[in-house]
Write a structure and sequence with these properties.
Elements: E1 2-3, H1 4-32, H2 43-50, H3 59-66, H4 72-76, H5 102-112, E2 128-129, H6 131-149, H7 154-166, H8 168-190, E3 196-212, E4 217-218, E5 224-226, E6 233-245, E7 251-259, H9 267-271, E8 291-302, E9 305-314, H10 335-338, E10 348-356, E11 363-371, H11 400-403, E12 416-426, E13 430-441, E14 444-456, E15 461-475, E16 478-480, E17 483-492, E18 500-510, E19 520-529, E20 534-544, E21 555-565
Antiparallel strand pairs: 1-2, 3-6, 3-21, 4-5, 6-7, 7-8, 8-9, 9-10, 10-11, 11-12, 12-13, 13-14, 14-15, 15-16, 15-17, 17-18, 18-19, 19-20, 20-21
Length: 566
């Protein structure tokens, strides 16, 4: 049930609108000669609209209902009659001008005279209202309104009809213009996107140096790599990325990349070039020459399914990702710590990618195919065209017999690889990925499986890791069964908001047939932002048993990396 105060507010709002229609709007139309077109209005039609259309309730039904526990007769018996009407809200002793419904109650009393009070001039505005009381009050107010409507004269109705006829053409024209405007608005809403190209850029400056203990460093085959510490170097990489969308849901990306001297411009890459100890950001670009780093087009042919095709694709942009160890401009720089080394021997080239996330749920399925020499119609000795694209690569020294002649080139010839990944990601706190990789490199087939996980223990602390097992046939030392692992921790917002710190270790090539030991890589870094666009990162690398050779001394490097983003 509702209270009397709310009843007054409901009546006042409804009757004010009806009054405006029948009196105020009509008076204005006579003065200005303007009124909306509508069917011819008569007093009988107005009365018919207000009078109830449903089957009326009989007196017998009312009497039967009143004798029940509704309390209608008891509640209304004490109300004042029409002989002692209320003419002002101020006459009611328990109604104050500060009451929230005072003005609505006052309007009903003064305009329509359809509100009565209890004895002793009380209104009891907070008392509950039965449906019968509501019906009685509504009937009184509607009858008052009907009486006001019936004062319309035949001349008034004639004026209304004449105004309708005079403005039929104008109103029809107005309706046509409104319809046209609605059509144009709908078209604009459906085609509001325009082709847009956005430019982003990144520049990485790094000062790096290092050395090793012992007398010399040798490769897995026993060939000497260095007998003295390399020079400290200042290295760089710069990229310009053009992102274009034609429909708002697609992406054409073109990236131009340049760099200093590839993997030979840093101590880690020079002293241990075989098992991914190189600084990853130094790989793309050669001696200041600009090259094509990315060229692909991504679109969504169906909901939750993305398809990418391109001539310059890096598989690690789509698979084997990890929130804490995957970006050499943000977190770790050692290549063996940011991707699964044995599952991605040839990740750069031309190809296609699918990414299916059913219902935008926690499960995703991704597939990648890339061919390193897709643009070559004949066989060649180059292991791939990924010099400007980046990513890890298999050590050619393990396949000397086939390395020169084994790569046929073309879209389906060696080197090529496929990669399939099933991911389960529970919000942004946990993700687990199962992986399969297979293909052909240096004329030799390989297959591998792996796993990748990340877990945020809190907003500041996370752990992560990777594992891989692969089979490489026909190497210079026979069929290989290498294993790979890495693991680490990440600290967010350490000392400074937005700062990231991490430490990780890994073994990229666990294989007894290669060398007499197992290489282990360590890295620690601290990335702190000077602002949103400039971030400085000191990092340290330690490499033991480099190249799986126990006679090699420990390699130490230090790097100061600065990243500019715009």
């Amino acid at each position: 049930m509702i209270g009397y105060s709310k009843l007054g507010l409901y009546f006042a709002s409804s009757l004010s609108i009806l009054s405006m229609i029948t009196q105020g709007a009509f008076a204005q139309s006579k003065a200005s000669g303007s009124i909306a077109a509508s069917p011819t209005i008569t007093t009988a039609q107005i009365n018919a609209t207000i009078e109830p259309q449903a089957t009326p309730v009989t007196n017998t039904q009312i009497a039967q209902a009143a004798s029940s526990n509704w309390g209608f007769q008891d509640r209304t018996a004490g109300m004042t009659t029409s002989k002692d009407p209320v003419t002002s809200a101020s006459q009611l002793a328990d109604v104050q001008p500060t009451d929230w419904a005072f003005h609505s109650l006052q309007a009903l009393i003064e305009r329509y005279g359809c509100i009565a009070g209890y004895p002793k001039r009380t209104y009891k505005g907070n008392q509950a209202l039965t449906r019968y009381e509501f019906a009685a009050g509504l009937n009184a107010c509607l009858r008052s309104l009907v009486e006001r409507i019936e004062v319309l004269t035949p001349n008034d109705l004639t004026t209304l009809r004449r105004l309708q006829e005079n403005f039929v053409a104008e109103l029809a024209l107005l309706r046509g213009r409104v319809d046209s405007l609605e059509v144009r608005t709908t078209e604009l809403e459906a085609n509001q996107f325009s082709t847009t190209t956005k430019l982003t850029g990144q520049a990485i400056f790094a000062v790096t140096g290092g050395g090793f203990s012992g007398e010399r460093i040798i490769a897995p085959t026993g060939v000497e790599i260095a007998d003295e510490d390399p020079n400290s170097t200042f290295i760089y990489r710069a990229s310009l990325t053009f992102n274009t969308s034609f429909q708002g849901t697609d992406l054409l990306q073109i990236r131009l990349v340049t760099g200093s001297d590839g993997s030979d411009d840093n101590a880690a890459g020079l002293l241990e070039p075989n098992f991914a100890s190189v600084l990853d950001f130094s790989v793309p670009g050669q001696n200041g020459q600009f090259g094509l780093g990315r060229l692909y087009y991504t679109f969504t042919p169906v909901k939750d399914f993305a398809l990418t095709v391109g001539s310059a694709i890096l598989a690690t942009d789509y698979v084997d990702r990890n929130s804490y160890a995957n970006n050499s401009a943000k977190d770790f720089s050692t290549q063996a710590l940011i991707n699964n080394f044995i599952l991605l021997p040839t990740p750069a080239g031309a190809g296609a990618v699918i990414d299916w996330n059913p219902g935008a749920g926690p499960f995703s399925i991704r597939g990648v195919y890339v061919a390193g020499n897709a643009g070559r119609a004949t066989a060649g000795s180059n292991a791939g065209d990924g010099g400007f694209i980046g990513g890890p690569s298999a050590p050619e020294l393990l396949f000397p017999a086939l390395g020169a002649l084994g790569d046929q080139g073309g879209l389906f010839g060696a080197p090529h690889q496929g990669f399939v990944e099933l991911e389960y990601a529970l919000s942004n706190k946990f993700a687990f990925r199962l992986q399969y990789s297979g293909g052909q490199i240096f004329g030799s087939f390989f297959n591998g499986v792996g796993a990748n996980f990340e877990l945020a223990l809190s907003q500041q602390l996370a752990v992560f890791g990777r594992y891989g097992y692969a089979v490489y046939n026909d190497s210079s030392v026979g069929d290989l069964r290498p294993q790979y692992w890495m693991a680490g921790i990440s600290l967010q917002n350490l000392f400074v908001p937005g700062a990231v710190a991490g430490i990780a270790a890994g073994q990229p090539q666990i294989e007894g047939k290669v060398g007499d030991a197992t290489q282990t890589n360590f890295e620690a870094f601290y990335n702190f932002p000077l602002n949103d666009d400039i971030k400085v990162t000191p990092l340290v690398q330690v490499i033991t048993d480099a190249g799986n050779q126990g006679s090699n001394g420990t390699i130490y490097t230090g790097t100061l990396r600065t990243v500019f983003s715009f």
